[in-house]
Structure prediction request, 559 residues.
Amino acid sequence: MAYKSDIEIAQQAELKPISQIAEGLGIGEEYTEAYGKYKAKIDYNLLKEYNESPDGKLILVTAITPTPAGEGKTTTTVGLGDALNSLGKKAMIALREPSLGPVFGIKGGAAGGGYSQVLPMEDINLHFTGDIHAIGAANNLLAAMLDNHIHQGNALDIDTRRIVWRRAMDMNDRQLRAMVNGLGGRGNGVPREDGFDITVASEIMAIMCLAEDISDLKVRLSRIIVAYDKKGNPVTAGMLKAQGSLAALLKDALKPNLVQTLENNPAFVHGGPFANIAHGCNSIIATKMALKLCDYVVTEAGFGADLGAEKFFDIKCRMAGLVPDAVVIVATVRALKHHGGVPKDKLSAEDLDALERGIPNLLKHVENVTQKFGLPVVVAVNRFPDDTEKELEFISRKCAGYGVEVALSEVWGKGGAGGQMLASKVLNAIEKEKNQFVFAYSDEDSIADKIRKVAVEIYGAKEVVFGGPALAGIKQAEKLGLSTLPVCMAKTQYSLSDNPKLLARPEGFEVTVREIRISAGAGFIVAITGDIMTMPGLPRVPAAESIDVDDGGRISGLF
Prediction:
């Protein structure tokens, strides 16, 4: 059989009109706003109709520490949703929206792969319904209002050396990371240092994904700290009277996007905060709506479980009052061998010794979710053709030591049918295993103690070192009365530590927090470790070089 690319599979699929998908969920026309034939916005006011209705079961898909070998978390999420439906369950998935930067950079799209995709994948991976553009416009309107206030007399006495709000663009462009603007004379504004973040790293993206409704959105927007005055007091978006106009730009973006899988099952794709600098989950509104509409909802968190799942639990679940019913941790034999020190071009060969060295990474994530957070876990091994029976048996035996089931997942090549074993084991875990969900820290813990608990208990660090700017940032947050907020760790995704070169399960390391950023609107404190960038750059050979469109509008090269 000839190999088909993701986009070829997607373009050959038979999609149902989005109105049929909405009808199947019981969503009336009054709440459905079609964006063409196969996409729709669903009015968040629909949730008011379901206030007294019970929630479905919430399943989180996370993964081991990412590697160049790939893990397939989104593909597994889509495939598991399809598999549950194929077993007669009413299920849907809830995913993040892809950012254009990674699509044209190195990562590619984020709509799944093979026969486990959400469609239309070209639209989802490109402009979709314009949500991310709306967030970029709101971010930059706030920046423009801030600079205009200074230009028009600076009644708030803003210290131009302490402006913390940056501009945003949904593209990887390292040239814009740091810059000086306002040049060219008095009429062009006040010269100052500035820079751009990628739009999905904007606090406004995090705010949209954590807001409960339009009123909550406006309150959160008003709390954004954009600068400090010359006495050191924070200046907020509310003080600039910006929250109303920002919310006006975001009123449609706040509505979840309804699409479908290859197997015509429903999916919400909504919101996409960076999993480094923010919490890396889809919107609370989309997740809550899905839980009211279906018996099972499969969602995912960004990067490995140390980043994505921890923030899903400690930030999203804490704010939204959600309790997950089960967690799937995705791994591959190839990725575990990479953690064991095998170079990318040698990963196809059987190597039990390398697997022995690399599997502690998976087991640490299993330990965290089962023992630290108290949740049932199933390990999904995303199977590759060159995986050997000995390697697969080795993983199952190691996980059995933690009382955790392992399921082979073949959803990439077989769709929902290839995920039925995984779905059955997840259903069994929900029904029979104890759920003793707890957070990693309490609201009353100090900011420093919250950071220590995540670093020591979840990452396995020996200690946390706070740099001078980080200590000053903690003091500032405490002065503002924000010490009860959860912490959002900004750390490399490539290691349990803050050093991307430390693979598997490193021990005896220190985590260095170099800076604290206050996301008062989103409602969390960001702890910056390592060399975290909020504006990525393009690689030597960007994916953009392979993307094209023909005379009929048919796109190629997306993956």
Residues 131-151 form the longest helix (21 residues). The first strand starts at residue 32 and ends at 34. The chain has a mean pLDDT of 94. The chain has 18 helices and 25 strands.
